[in-house]
Amino acid sequence: MTKWKANILQLFLGMMVLAPNCVYGQFKNGLDVYSYFQVITQAWDITSNPASSPRNSASFSVQQLNVFLRKQYDARFSSFINLELTNSFSLAKGWGNINLEEAWGRYDHSPYLKIKFGLLIPTYNNLNEIKNRTPLLPFIYRPIAYEATFNSILNTIQLIPQQAGLEVYGTVSGRNRLRLDYSAYLGNQIGFVLSEGKGYYTPGSDTTVAKLVGGRVGLRYKGFKLGLSLAKDKTTLSDIGGELLDIEAHGTGGRTRVGMDLSFNYYPWFVESEYSQVKYRLDGLASRNLGEIARSNILVNNKVNMNFFYAMVGRHFLERYYAYAMYSYLDNEVYALMSQGIGNVSIGGGMRIKDDFVLKAQVSQVTMYSNTFFFSICTISLWA
Amino acid sequence: MHLFQILWILVLGTMLQSIEPSLVYGQTVDHVVRADTDFVALVAHKAVSNTVLSSREAAEIYRMEHNKWDDGTLVVIVDLALKSAVKTQFYNFIDAKERELKNVWMRFILSGEGRAPTVARSEKEVIELVANTEGAVGYVRAVFVTDQVKVLALIDPENL
Predict the structure, then answer these.
(1) How far is B112 from chain A (nearest CA, A)?
(2) I need a surface site. Which of A56, A257, A262, B65 has the fewest CB within 10 A?
(3) Which pLDDT belongs to residue A383?
(4) Per-residue pLDDT at B31
């Protein structure tokens, strides 16, 4: 086995997905109930290093099922609920998870001004709001930062704002089809206990007065779309470390996420790309603690920033078929294993059996660009 | 002003007026049925306050960028289910591809921003739906237009 093969993680995924997209029901009282799900069969081939034998597996599962409830009260007010069940959810068997993804009310003044209030997914780059809308995604496994499967080992939750509580957004129409989109939002410091015991705690609430603040400004012209995103909040050193490093030391830091998205849809071609960077400003306590940990633990670096990008090029064929190629990359400086990044090359395609019934296939290779020997730990636990 | 410049302005004005030659606004239903049976008619519920729609405005409505009429009533989009000449002609009028429009609609529906368009199986059904649904808008060949609906635009397929 060559050195290259011996020192990278190779993940070959062969996947087929059958995705009935939208089951739609409209009731006379104005309540719309609709749903989609994605059934998946996949085969894994994991090669980590010469010391460990390859791991193979194949499986069927209901990867994701979403149920939406939407009500339009009048021309200005509406509400929306999004429930998500993952990985063949079963309480009896202890499988998967059920999650309240969104629950918000909306005031629609005009295309220029709309206000959402409740539990919502904030606008950030192109993919964040629709990352779980599998009917809108040509791929099965998403770019690294958006794939929930990677979160426990790569701490991708740090890259993209996950939830907000209030969002003001709209579109200003220019001449022809030029559009200026904007959004600004406010949210909790999701999941982070920053108050150090000074805040009042109730489950699911923020114990601090510090808030996530963010927004996006974008331009659209016909199929062309360009946007800049920004989100600022605070986090803790242990959350920067994530599940893998499991840092218990105290200390907090300001977190700034900056993103840029560029996409182009010129039938039959479609192109999407996105870049996101996370920069932290650690306080004195966090800096000292991280320095000490980095000196004693070779898995931890005394640096904390993250970078992510993805690009996809695709083409429709004969109305019913499409194919694409995608590359996504992520690095996370605090993990010694991840400081040189991880890349994911995918090719895939789909066939629309019916408008709302799509057969998708995808083959991916995930490569860790690191020469260290620990990389197989996280990957085996993830995919086993 | 020089006579030559005045002539140029007149010529230019005439050209600009003919940018959307496929549109004939404000016609009565009788006129539509008698003279323009090959035209495509953009029809709306009778109570809709708008009287005309340009191709740009129709495109904004079918792309769900505008979801209200001028009087604040919610727009209800009616679309033909099956491929047909009238569907292709109307989509050309609003400069949209069927797949592109379906993706736009799907994104709006799945993000909770809007309702799915109402789908009609025939042009006769489009007229029934538009006539009986407040705020509805649809398209049919002009020959199907009745006095139950309002014509917002007439599209000449030969000039698309």
Answers:
(1) 6
(2) A56
(3) 24
(4) 46
CA B2 centroid distance within chain: 41
| Half-sphere exposure for B141 (CA within 13 Å, toward CB) | 12
Residue of A nearest to B61 (CA): A111
Q: CA distances (Å), A373 to each of A370, A377, B143, in order?
A: 8, 9, 75
Which residues of chain A have a CB within 8 Å of the CB of B99? 267, 316, 319
First-residue to last-residue Cα distance in chain A: 23
Q: Identify the pLDDT of residue B122.
A: 94
Q: According to DSSP H, which parts of chain A are helical? A: 3-6, 148-154, 237-245, 284-296, 375-383
CB contact under 8 A, A75 and B74: yes
Strand pairing partners for A14? A43, A363
Q: Which of A32, A80, A136 sits opposite B106 (nearest CB)?
A: A136
Q: Which residues of chain A have pLDDT under 70?
A: 1-29, 43-58, 149, 190-204, 244-245, 371-384
Q: Is the pLDDT of residue B35 over 80?
A: no
Q: What is the per-residue pLDDT for A61?
A: 78
Q: SS3 breakdown of chain B: % helix, strand, coil, rounded to 5?
A: 40, 20, 40
Measuring CA to CA, how many Å separate A248 from each of A189, A238, B131? 18, 6, 66
- Quick one: pLDDT at residue A320? 86
Q: What ipTM, to 2 d.p.? A: 0.79
pLDDT number for residue B33? 47
d(CA B127, CA B45): 9
Measured CA to CA in angstroms, residue B82 lies from A165, B98, B122, B157 at distances of 41, 11, 8, 19
Burial of B19 (0-12, 13-18, 19+ CB in 10 A): exposed
CA nearest to A47, candidates A89, A94, A76, A13: A13
A229 to chain B nearest CA, in Å? Answer: 19
Confidence of residue B21 (pLDDT cuts 50, 70, 90): very low
Edge-to-edge order in the sheet of strand B40-45: B118-120, B76-80, B136-141, B40-45, B149-155
Backbone angles phi and psi of A26, in degrees to 5: -120, 130
Does A272 contact chain B (CB < 8 Å)?
A: no
- Between CA A31 and CA A33 the distance in angstroms is 6
Q: Which structure tokens are listed for A53?
A: 């034998």
Q: B65 and A111 in contact by Cβ < 8 A?
A: yes
Q: Whole-model pTM?
A: 0.81
Reported as a pLDDT band with limits 50, 70 and 90, residue B8 is: low
For residues A251 and B69, what is the distance between their CA atoms, to the nearest angstrom?
54
In terms of pLDDT, which residue wins out, B65 or A298?
A: B65
User: What values do phi and psi take at A168, rounded to 5?
Assistant: -110, 130
| Beta-strand relationship, B76-80 and B136-141 | parallel
Maximum alpha-carbon separation in chain B = 59
Average pLDDT estimate for B14-25: 41
